[in-house]
Amino acid sequence: MTVKVGDTAPDFTLPSQAGTPVSLQNFRGKKAVVLYFYPKDDTPGCTTQSCAFRDKYEAFKDAGAEVIGVSGDSLASHQQFATKHNLPFTLLSDAGNLLRKLYGVPSTLGILPGRVTYVIDRDGVVQHIFNSQMNFKAHIEESLKTLRQIQV
């Protein structure tokens, strides 16, 4: 399956870095969700991207959205990554990359997990998809631009 703009985002329940389950359904009707898939905790590009989301987190909240990061790393890895970089948002542990597969996030060169961001509105509909392995900060800019366009 590959999720496209206009699709209803597939629901999921995964553990956060705090060990609590998080479901996309919990945000339906309440907040938009910026769901970003990234390759690996504490690597240069992923740290740059996550810290850029951190630095703009208030803008995301002001736009009525929650930011959620997803990678295949363990809960312990996510806890360390979030603490080390003071990340105020949720990181989900996608063991076995099942959510990544459900959303159809492509690999880069067939080996590196892809870096794709989905902007999902309050109704659970995918409004924007941004796919760039190397343009880390554009994920933040593209997401905020989309949220401002769909904001009611």
Written account of the structure:
This protein has helices spanning 44-55, 57-62, 75-84, 98-103, 138-150, and strands at 13-15, 21-23, 32-37, 65-71, 90-93, 107-108, 112-113, 116-120, 126-131. The radius of gyration is 14 Å and the shape is globular. It has 152 residues and is of the alpha/beta class. It starts with 12 loop residues before the first strand and ends with a helix. The strands form three sheets. The protein has a five-stranded mixed β-sheet. A two-stranded antiparallel sheet has the order 1-2. The protein has a two-stranded antiparallel ribbon with strand order 6-7. It is 31% helix and 25% strand.
Helices and strands, in order, run as EEEHHEHEHEEEEH
Query: Main sheet, how many strands, which sense, barrel?
Result: 5 strands, mixed
* Computed structural class: alpha/beta
- What is the end-to-end distance? 30 Å
Name the average pLDDT: 94
Radius of gyration: 14 Å
Order of strands across the main sheet:
5-4-3-8-9
Which blocks of ≥5 consecutive residues have pLDDT under 50?
Answer: none
- % residues in beta strands: 25-35%
- Individual helix count: 5
Summarize the structure.
The chain has 152 residues and is of the alpha/beta class. Helix content is 31%, strand content 25%.
Quick tags:
152 residues; 31% helix; alpha/beta; 9 strands; 5 helices; globular; 5-stranded mixed β-sheet; two-stranded antiparallel sheet
